[in-house]
Amino acid sequence: MLAAMSPDDPDEPRDRETLPTFVDFDAHDAAKGGATVPVLIQTAGLDTGRLLTVPEGTSVLRRARGWEVTFDLDGEPLAELSRAGAGVACTTFGVARVSGRPGASHALAPGDRLEAGPVLLRFQEVGAEEARALGAFYASSRRDGLTGLANARALDEHVASEVAYARRHREPLSVLVIDLDGSSARVAAEGFEALDPLVRRLARTVAGCARDVDLVARTGPDELSVARRGATREDAAALGEAIRAALSASGAPVLTVSVGVASLACLGTSDRALLDLSRARAVAARTAGGDRVIQEG
User: Where do the structural domains in the chain lie, given as residue ranges?
Assistant: First the structure.
């Protein structure tokens, strides 16, 4: 689980989901080696533990999906940060504040808190190697070691954020749970290690069928899940059928899956209920003989 796959491993899926970037060093930071790097460490919110380096020059910290914060180009601006060397000046917008202090413009000092709604970021100056280690630790807490996909924790956090986004913007949201058929028999005959290449193959196939904005996660020994923004239940069921077709054409041994689909419109309650209903329908598909997609019942 914790053993990371080599980037050159041909079995590693090029997953299509959009997890936040943790440590994105530019060439200037990399060249400084032992010099300190100004960073923001998230200490509250959905991505607690995430570390963002503050880019050189002027950049804007934005609120993207839900309350994910990012230096990407799109999203509601929360703060403008101006970095020269290790010094960082911050100008806040809207609900954002620095350590609860009045006024919008501040020179950040180690330990200062950037507060924005439910998100809390702590400013620190750390060595480049320490920043890399913190980023790697955060990544390992959100990635599945076998497939390179997001793990169950990352999916739970993502779905909670997506549910809030879907309700706020009145958009559809669907989740698929995909179970590999015949896993129990394979494990009984050959042991758990026999599942590994099959799960990698399933992961490659699902990631290849998904969109860039979908999050694909491994949520069980033989189970993957997909969170699909802007997709109705019928759209998600069509993805399930596409995955079944792609698996059948992916070579021997022949793999089949039981897929459960649920959408926010099915229940309109919590993110946990959305995941649970998708999983219950996947179980129903397997009980009915497998190799099918169930979106009702």
Answer: 27-140, 152-294
Q: What is the dihedral of CA 109, 110, 114, 120, to 10 degrees?
A: -170
SS3 label, residue 7: coil
User: Rounded to an integer, what distance in angstroms lies between the CA atom of residue 278 and that of residue 149?
Assistant: 19
Confidence (pTM): 0.67
Inter-axis angle of helices 233-248 and 195-209, nearest 10: 130
H helices present in 104-250, as ranges: 128-140, 152-169, 183-190, 195-209, 233-248
Write down the CATH number for the domain with range 152-294.
Answer: 3.30.70.270
**Predicted pLDDT of residue 194:** 87
Rounded distance between C-alpha atoms, residue 223 and residue 55, angstroms: 38
Q: Number of helices (H) and strands (E) in the chain: give both, helices first.
A: 8, 15
Angle in degrees, CA 228, 232, 233, rounded to 5: 95
Judged against a pLDDT cut of 50, whether residue 44 lies above it is answered with yes
Torsion of CA 81, 82, 88, 93, to 10 degrees: -30
The DSSP symbol for 143 reads B
Question: CATH assignment of 27-140?
Answer: 2.60.200.20
Q: At 228, which amino acid appears?
A: R
Task: Name residue, tokens 């400084």.
Answer: 32
Residue tagged 């995430």 (tokens): 50
Residue 27 has pLDDT above 50, yes or no: no
Pick left, alpha or beta for residue 192 (phi over 0 → left; psi -120 to 50 → alpha; otherwise beta).
alpha
Tell me the pLDDT tens digit for each residue of 62-112. 886 556 688 866 778 999 999 987 789 999 998 899 998 888 899 999 999
